[in-house]
Each structure stands twice: as structure tokens, then as C-alpha cells.
Design goal:
The complex is a heterodimer of chains A (about 450) and B (about 950). With about 450 residues, chain A is of the alpha/beta class. Chain A is built from 12 helices and 12 strands. In chain A, strand 3 and strand 4 form a beta hairpin. The longest helix of chain A is centred in the C-terminal third of the chain and has 26 residues. Chain A is globular and about 75 Å long. The two termini of chain A are about 35 Å apart. In chain B, the strands form 14 sheets. In chain B, strands 13, 15, 16, 19, 20 and 21 form a 6-stranded mixed beta sheet that branches. Chain B is an alpha+beta fold and about 950 residues long. Classes of the chains: A alpha/beta (about 450), B alpha+beta (about 950). Chains A and B meet through helix 4, strand 7, helix 6 and helix 7 of A and helix 10, helix 13, strand 46, helix 19 and helix 22 of B.
Chain lengths: ~450, ~950
Amino acid sequence: MRKMTRRDFVRNTCCSAAAGMAAASFSRLGLINAMAQTSTDYKALVCIFLFGGNDANNMIVPLDSSGYANYASLRAGLALSQGQLLPVTPPSIGSPFGFHPSLVEIQQLFNNQKLALLANVGTLVQPTTRAQFLQQQATLPENLFSHEDQQLQMQSAAASTLAPAGWGGLLADKMEAIYGGNFPVAISLAGTNLFVEGLSMRCMESSGNPTSPLNGFYGSATDNARLAALQSLLTFDTGLSLIQSASSVTGNALNDSKALATALASNKALMTQFPTSSLGGQLKQVAQIIQARSGLGLPRQIFFVSSGGFDTHTAQLPTQLALFKDLSQCMNAFYNATVEIGVDSQVTSFTLSDFARTFQPDSTSGTDHAWGSHHMIMGSAVKGSDFYGTFPTLALGGPDDATSQGRWIPTTSLDQYGATLAKWFGVQASDLPSIFSNLPNFQNPTLSFV
Amino acid sequence: MTGSLVQRPVSRLKILALCLGTAGMVACGVSEGGNHLHPAVVVAPAQAQIRAGDTQQFKATVTGITPTGSASSTPPSQPNPPSTPITISQSRARMGHAGLSSPGPNIVVESGDEVTWSVNGVAGGNATVGTINSNGLYAAPAVLPSNTAITVTATSVANLSASGEAAVALENAIPVVQSAQPSSVTVGNFTLSVAGSKFAKGAEVLLNGTALQTTFVSATQLTATGTATQPEVGKATITVENPNPGAIVSATAYALQIDPALKVTVNVSPATAQVREGGTQQFSVTVTGSTNPAVSWSVNGVTGGNSSLGTVDASGLYKAPASLPNPNSVTVTATSVAASGSSATAMVALQNPIPLVTAVSPNPVTVGNFTLTVTGTNFVSGATVSFGGQFLDTTYVSSTKLTATGTASTQQVGSVAVEVQNPDPGSVESSALNLQVSSASPVVSAAVAARFLEQSTFGPTPQLIAHVQQIGLQAFLNEQFTAPASTYPALVSTDSMSLMQQRFFANAVNGQDQLRQRVALALSEQFVISAIKISDPTAFVLWMNMLQKDAFGNHSTLLNDVTLSPAMGNYLDMGNNDGCSGCRPNENYGREVLQLFTIGLAQLNPDGSPQVDGSGNPIPTYQQATVDGFSDVFTGWTYPAAPGTTAQFYDPLFYSGPMIPFASHHNTTAKTLLDTTLPAGNNIQTDLNAALKDIFNHPNVGPFLAQHLIQNLVTSNPSPAYVARVSAVFNDNGSGVRGDLKAVVSAILLDPEARRGDDLTQVQASDGHLKEPLLYITNVLRAANATTDGGSNLQYYASNMGQYPFYSPSVFNFYPPNNVIPGTTLLGPEFKLMNTSTAIARINYVNDLVYGNVGATTTVNLSPYVTVAGDVNKLLTTLSGVMLHSQMSSDMQGTLASTLSGITDLKQRTQAAFFLIASSSQYQVEH
């Protein structure tokens, strides 16, 4: 997309990414006296973003006989076989459902009350019906079905793709009242992502090893002089914004990687084994950073990790088979690590994705971009073993379908999803709309899954 | 082989024969007339030669003694075997007669004829002189007595005064040879041990009849020494000769094998060699004819050689001396340790080394007289510098430095080859280094040229800066538009993608078609495919060839080639997209070709800003129905048929050639597009052409493309006016043609906003763009005068910086065009890849390049900078000229100067300077 109005975005606060910049006035964001927590009261949120638009229609499937029959008939070549689905029975619905056969550990976590499912959640400006959608009588999120826009909106909880910050970053901003340190609260292990970028607090983003050292400096006089010159150059005011930004990222990188390396050095090695996939590696890094939270002096942490490849226009069955297996094993390993560290009640993980996919398959054994999806929330604080939100009616052109290919209009908004997590995290109810701008449009600002 | 000597009894008949036929045989008893008889004993034979150990039968005839019978002169008659055994008296027993054995046919026993036998007066003889029995059988001793004349006497028993004698001459026995040890000898000295029997003291061993020096060991063993000669090779006869008395050679012999002598020879290879000063030559040697292969090496007779002739070690490795000796040839000799007379020699001709030129200063020079300093290695006194093939007046400074004076003419403006030629022996020229000759009045300044090159190439070089200075920006663009495209290797599906990645780097660093490659890279980041999904590198060869070919063509051609590319057909699922009735076609290409490749989501003004409706909201360019329409158009296309196969719908993946249509799988419903509605029943190709034209003519295409290319080449935040100017050129290149990419690229690079920053005072805060990893890596390599074949590690450095070549994480490219720099309102697409780990990876890349290496096949050459490093500020301005288009800020220069002055080693100073500039944000952000 080609939006230029981001430049016109009027902001009250100063640039947040510059090194060492202290918090500006946050009166606009509200006081956080309810957040006067002691530093021993630790909480962390971990966002697991599934890039590409995960087809949640095959992640959780009705297992009651008529529900399954309907599913199988409409999904045709993409339908999973009944016997392979991993059964769960959410008490709030009272009828059986089945997880995708690869989600073995997810099923166990669900049955052990450590995992909940939020049904049919997605970007929404206001509650929207099919009729309203078709008659264009509701304000809709911008550019539905566009990967980039929906990814940014899911991460920013803004209806506009031009949001300057992610809601994880905004949560981190809220921590300023109880955190006086200089290490970022919000950390992405999946490269640069809007989710962790706030307005006042500095975030940390890494796509590789976040503690990678600077090579070639061995402490000789020449080396020290050279390092000093390198660091000095980073502080110059060149008058060019892009140079300043590059210097800022580099300067922060040198400081943060060193500080993190120091903090991690006192970690005991984790016994929990993680899968060696990209997601596994990222979640392992999260676990290690959580382990080092005291050394970093962080009372709150927000993490962002990702798994890619969910844009299954073709070959959906084999692709999801592998992706879900990895997701299940990685999430389970991470949960076990939080148990090992002793913070399983204090760490809540949750999934997000661009959108879901058409219930009706396309002609190439895949699906196209859709909307409302099902997501999972995990942790000992979660009221697991149940579904939340409203499960959609799985009918093409049915009451929940925005089109006739099975693109479910969300019955729960991303704002409500995020607000529930934020509230658990410690944000006051009155502050939630400042982060989740569409929240006032919904009757129940928060849900009860955590 | 033993001889046998048969004891042959002397027959009586022979005695009688002797008796009758031979005068003077007393034993015959022939009277000599008269009847006078007196007693006499005649012994026959009267004389005998008897060998040691042999026997001799004597007969005694007694005459003149009348026994009870008459004397008879008749010869004794046939012997009558005694009817009764003879009783042997004691005296007879002493004669050693066995007694009871039958006497044998040659015993004459006559009564009255009885005699007693004695040897040398000893009755019966003894062991020393031999024994004789009562029958007259004499047995010679095995060992001869000192006096070998023996007397055998027969004394009449009846008349003790009557006796007869035989004179016996004892002789040595006939020796018997049984064997010899060893059984074979080699020509030369030998010792032989001969076994046999009847060897007498003084016996000699004979070799082919010639006596050897013999030692008597015993009667059964002799030892002999001798020398076998070459003519005697073969079987030699070994016999033994007993000495006198009765010297006689054995009848038996031993066949001794005499083998030819071994000769030691030495061979050295090669027989001749040419070795340059400081070089080496490995010689190999073989030694035959000895079990000892050791040789000793020498040079000109000096064992091991020396520092003036060159040395040779025990393995035969010859090392030429550091300077040539006079004369400049030596001999290398290998001598056999086993046979010092055997050796072999190789001739070595020594030559001057091959010179290497690493830097020429100053570079560039201006037309007119110049003095060059040529830096390199292996220069020899007498070396000459050539400039454009012409030899210059050269002064030898050292083996690493020459100076030369010359004149550059106006005809030589541009690149001129500078080489160094060492003199004979082995005169040879170095490879060439290009010297830029500038005309006295360049068209643009060095700084302007450098900044233009930052925008239009993968990095300025001093030569290219000088070149652009001479011809100006437009002329350089014209050269670039006609430069032939760099090639990608012909790969097969099982090849690794790393070959594509390496060639990308090689082409970017070395290729002449810099701008074409820049534009192709930019297009590949707008029209995206990824090796994450496509594993066959042939797809990428064809894809990059297509982008390079179309980079300066028309956008409509590009759009068509992209749409029908099997690589794109695979990546976004248009390949084998089936338009069967009732099927829902795949929407991937239908959606992304609009959203990402051509028009975007919102209607744009020509200046790139989004149009807004009455409520201030952006206006979408298309609806879902449009996506459906295009998706329907893009049905029925499949991959070309591989050679030898028949084309069919659902052809398997094959990348050579455009996709092919199958009408029977094409959706024939009506299709709503952007500005067109296609009627039902259209031909598949008609639908495609119309759909692509529908897209091509959309007013968004110009500003959408302009924005993207400007961001890639010049600045992340172009002004709307800049975008508008470029869009206008896209819409009409000045000759009424829409979509002229060459005109668009020219417009982008020559636009006043692109050139504004040439003047330092006109640079604005939002100017510039961060070098994406591929641009950063190649820029640093070119600034460092790198020689590379693409290396084997460069793609990993790029990966650590977030851009693994050809592996875009999604169809949105490595970074989106509208990425906002965190904490700002500015666009910075490349900043999407700038984070904690990638920022450090960038610096570490420069560290490896400057202080280590970035792969075995990539080398950097900082020596042109080292040449000027003696003056810190000159070093900085030189580097700034190449890397910062001479716009290094004074505070940056001051900080660097103060750090660098503390480094006295010029190479380390240069390294530190290059490192600090290359890793700086000032360099990473082109502005």
C-alpha cells in the first residue's frame, strides 16, 4: 500500500527510539496508580504471531456428528478426518470439538486447564453483521484481506494501518511508572515488528542472536581507541534523520546486547528442551530472558515471536500438518520452561495472525484470505479447558459469512482480546481505550479467559 | 656329485700276464738257466703306485724250496680252492687277514709257499705305512706317511733268509667333491666351502680348472677364496686337486652359479628446469642397482647448496636464491650413497621473478607529464614500467617500489593499463592495473561523480569516478544503458542456490552493467519470488536474466514476462490454476499483482499521495470482485513442456520459456477488472492481454513504480513533486510512449531532487536511504578494491544482516516500501532490517573484511590508501572521496584524524580508517 498520510500523523510525544531519551509526559495516557506494584510481582505477555493468515478452521473442528458432517461437506478436499482429530469438550459449548492431529501437546494443555481457545476473533471497528457488511453500513477495518494491513492492525489494535505504535509497545509505555531502568520492556525476537514499538519506551528488536558481540576488539590501546571512535561517531548530530536513526539503532544494539549478555550469563542452564525450529529458538530466547528478569530489573516484560508460512493458498494440508506440529511442541516447551523457572502463573502466551482463511477451498488445494480466526491463550493463569467468544456458524453465505466463501465476520474484536490480556497485565480499565481505540464500541471490553 | 672310484681287484690273470710277458719279473720264478736252485721269493708286482686308502694285492712266489713235492718251474696251476679252511697261525693272523672269509679269486694259496708279509719291515704293516694281510693284500693308509716310499716284503716261512720285495710309491687319494657352499656367488670376491672326501693336505679347489686360494680344514672340507669375474658368469665347475704325490683332480665336480655384478645407476627428474628468483623446483630421484636408495644432493658441487647458488634439501627441493648468481644457471646433482661414483645431474636456469603491481599513485593523473609511484612486489633492478604499452623512464627504488615518469596524451583520457616488466633472464610483464587519465577540465567534480555512482552502481571506485568526471552523468547513463547484461551461470535443478547467490555478488562487484543490475535488483524487490518456495535455481537464472533484459525496456513487456514466468507461476500459484466451472480459482496472483506489483490498495495522485474521498478516507483501487475477476483471467496456464514430453494441463514444473495456455482450463465467464469488464467466452490469450493492459493503463502504475524505484536508488522520502515528475515520464517518455523504463530511470537519477544533495548546503534532513545489506556488502567490497568470484561466505553475511539473497521471507520482499522508521514519521524501507542483531552484523562484516577475510576467494586491496596514509588528512580525504562523495563532515574528520594519528603503522592506520568509515552510519545511509 502506498500511504503517505503517516507523515501527517500528529503526535504529541517525541520520538521514542532515540537512545537514552527519557519518558516524556504521559498524562495523555493516564496515571497508573493501580500499577504501583512491587518489583517481585512479575508478569509477562508473549505474543506468538502466525504470519500469513492461519486457517484456524482446520485448527479446531466441530466433532458432534452434524457439526462434523457439515464441516466435512463444505471443506471437501481440505477436511480433516474425524478419527484423527484430538477431542476436547469445552463446557461453555457442551459439545465436542477436535484439535488438528498435530496439536497433541495443545490438546493436553487444554485438557489440563492451561490453555483456552478464543473463537472467531479479528480486527473490527465495531460489531458488524453480514447485512451491514454487504450493505457497507458498518465502519470496517482498512484493507481487509491485505496481509500487510491486517498484520499491522493486529499488532497495533488500530483500525488504520498508519498506527505509529503496537499495543505491546503501548503496554510497555505504561510500565514507565514502575520501572526506572534502561533496558527495554518490550522485546521482539522476530526482527522489527510494530507490536513491540511504543511511543515513549525504547524496545528491543532482534532477528538473530540478541547478545551477539562486537568482533575484533581485544582490549589493546589501538582497539580501545578505535572502539571509542566508533561509539563517538554514533553520537554526532549529522542533521540527517536517517543517519540519526541508524546511529540510534546501532548505539542501542551495542548497549543492549552487552547488557543482555551480562544478565544471561548468570542464568542456570534450562533443562527444558526446545524444538530446533525458528519458533523454538525464539521461545527459548524468551525463556532465557525471563530467567534473567531480576538481573535486568524488569517487573514486566512483553515479548513477540513469530512463525511463518501460514499463507496456504496451495498445499494446505501438508503445510499445516508440519506448522501445527512445530507450534504445538514449541508452545508446550515454552510452558514447561515457565514451570521450570517458576513463573508459569505469571507468563501468559497468546497467538495472533493476519486473519483466517476461506472455509471453502480454492482449486489448488488451498484457501484464500479471510477474517475472523480462532486463537489460543496459554499459561497457568489462564482459565483453560474452555472456549471463549462465540463460535461462528460454519455455513457458506451464512449469518457469519462476509462473502460466500466462508470468511467469518469476527464476533470478538482484537481490541477485546488485547484488552483482556492488558488488564491481566495490570493496565487499569480506564486506560484500556487509550491502547485499544475501538474498545468503547464493544459492550464487553474484556473477556474472562484469564 | 661324487666320483666313485671302483676298487678293482687285480686279477690273477693279470699277474700271470705280467709274469709271462714281462721280463725281469722275479715273481715268475723263471730260472735263468742252470739247474742251480737256491731259495728265492719273488713278489709281484715288484713296483706299485698305490693311492691312500686303496688296496693292492701282492703275490709272493717262493722258489728253491722243495717241499714234499718236486720243485716245479711250472707256473702255479689254477688255484685249488682249499677244501678245508686254512688254519692261520698266529703269525699269519698278525697280517690282518680276516681268516675265515673266503680268500677271493686273486689269492694264490700254495702249500710250501707260505710267506709272511711285512711293510717297511713291520710284520703286517701298521696304520702309518699301511697294512698287509697274510694273503698279501696291502691296504694303503688313509693319510700318507711322510716317506711315501714303502717296501712290502714277503719272507719265506721255510727259509727266513729268503724274501722278496715290492717297492710301493704311495700317492694321495683321488679327491671326491660332493657339494659347495654357497651355491652361487656374484661377480667379485667370494668365499667357498667345499665338502667331499679324501682331501689331502695341500689340496686345492679349482674353479674352472684354476686353483683358488685353499685352506685345508679336514679330509672332508676345504675352504677356498677367489674372485669371480664377469666373463665367468654362468655355471662354473668346482673340482678339487690333491697334490703330489699322485696329484690328481677329482672326477667329481660341483656346478657353482656365478651371477653378474649389479651396477648402481642414478636418475634425476626433471633433467632441466627454469626457476624464478625466490621460487622452488622439486626434483625427484631414483636409484637402481642398490638396496640403498639414499642420495646426497648438491648444487654446483656444494652439498646442500648455499645462499648464493640456491639450496637443495634432502628431499631434492631446490630453492632459488634471493638474488640471481652469475652465471645464472646451476647444476643440481644427486649422488648415490651406496655407490659414490654413480650420480645424475639436472640443469637449472635461474630467472627473475614475476612482478606484481598492487597500486599506482597518483590515480587518476591528468593529461600531461606525470610521475608515478608504482607499488608492488618482486621488482628487480632494471624493471621498467609501461603505460599504455609504452615503456617509461623508470627508477628502481626497491623490490616493492618503482617510480616512472611519462606523459599522458588527450587521446589517453580514460583507463590506461600500467604494467611492470622485469628484465631478463625470464623477462615477463606483470598483470595490468588501470590508471585513470583525466582531462584537465572534467565535466563534473569528483564529488558529484561519486554521489551519482552511489545512486547508479553498487559503489563508486576511483577509476569509475574519474571516468564519470570525464564524460559526465548523461554520457555515463548512455554507456550503462548499452552495457551488455551480466550473465548468470547455466545451472541445473540439482545445483545449489549458493551458485546463484555467489554470481549475484560477483556480477555486482565486477560487472560493467552496474545500473542495469541495480534496476534489476530493485525490480526483483517489487516483483518478488522467493527460494523459500522455489528450490530450483534454474528458475532464478531465468528470472534474473528476464529482469536484466527488461530493466531498460517497456513496463508492459516486464508485466507480461513476469505474469507468464513459470517461476512466478509457481510462486503465486498461477501455474496450473484451473478455471474449471464451479471451481474457485486461486486468488494469490490475482490479488498480489495488483496490491504489490503494480497499483497498490489505494488510488494515488500522480505525486504518489493517496486520493481521498469526501470523508478524507483513501479510495481503494479494487474490491474483492476485482480480485475474483483477475483470478479468473489467470486460469488455464501451465508450465511449458520439458523437452521430450507432451504439453498438457497440469504440466509439471519446468522453468524454461513462458507458461503455455490451455483454453479448456480457462474460465470463460465475464470478468470485472479495474477499468474493464471482459466479456464471457474470451480466448485465454485475449483475456490475458486485455487484463495486463487494464493494469498497465491504470494511473497508479506510474507513481507506484516511481515511488519504489526512487526509494531504491535515491531516497526513502521523495517529495510528492519528485514523484510526480517521474510519474509523468512514465506516462509519456517525451515521444508519446507510456512505460519507458529507461526514461524513468534517467528521470529519477537526473532529477534535481536526486542531484540536490550534490551540494552539501542543499541536503535536507529527510534525504537519503539506508543501504540494504546487498548494497552495503558490495559497496564496501568495491571501495576496498576487492577481487572476488562472489565468494562462498558473502551470502551468509547478508543473511546475518537480514537479507539472504533470493530468499525473500514473503511476497512483500525483505522490507515493505512504506515501512516507517520507529520513533519517526519518516519512511525507511531498509530500516525494517535494522535491529539489534543486524546492526552488529554489519559492523562485524566490515571487521572481518578489513582485519580477517570474508571468504577464501575474496581479497581486498587497501594498498592505494596505504600509499597516502602517511598524511592522516590525505588518507581521510581520499577515503571520503570514494566512500562519502567527499562530504565527510569536519567533526567526523576531526575525530577520525585524532584516532588515526595515534596509529603509526601505515597499514594499521589505513585499516582503522577504512573500518571506522565503512561501519559508520554516515556511510551506511546514502544521502
